[in-house]
């Protein structure tokens, strides 16, 4: 009976691989697929070889490490281009925008209205109400120049 139970262990690995594959499709994060591949190979190895469950977990752990390492290397060599590379860089997205000075720029420091917020800025002297263009940013402080 123990041999029969050991031979059927491969189905659990293959089911796990299928569930992880489905999880990757539903929640794409390019990570679950590598673990799914490791589970599938472990299931195929358990199907072909009469190995105990502890050795199956060891095979799965080793394959997970190898698959994730290989996946990271592959994605490093083949980066996925973004349709919006500045998506998470708010200050870089503001470069080129024309904004209004809300607090006069004196001694190189002032504040400008950007959208519905007010940001600190560096730039040449400008009175309240003047229009300036954002030309750069240092952390959350915008660099501006007169329009």
UniProtKB/TrEMBL annotation:
Segments passing through the bilayer: 12-41, 47-69
Location relative to the cell: Membrane
Pfam families: NfeD (PF01957)
Protein name (record): NfeD-like C-terminal domain-containing protein
Residues in NfeD-like C-terminal domain copies: 92-146
Keywords (A to Z) from UniProt: Membrane, Transmembrane, Transmembrane helix
Keyword Transmembrane: yes
Membrane topology: Multi-pass membrane protein
GO cellular component term, pick one: plasma membrane
InterPro entries in alphabetical order: Membrane_assoc_protease (IPR052165), NA-bd_OB-fold (IPR012340), NfeD-like_C (IPR002810)
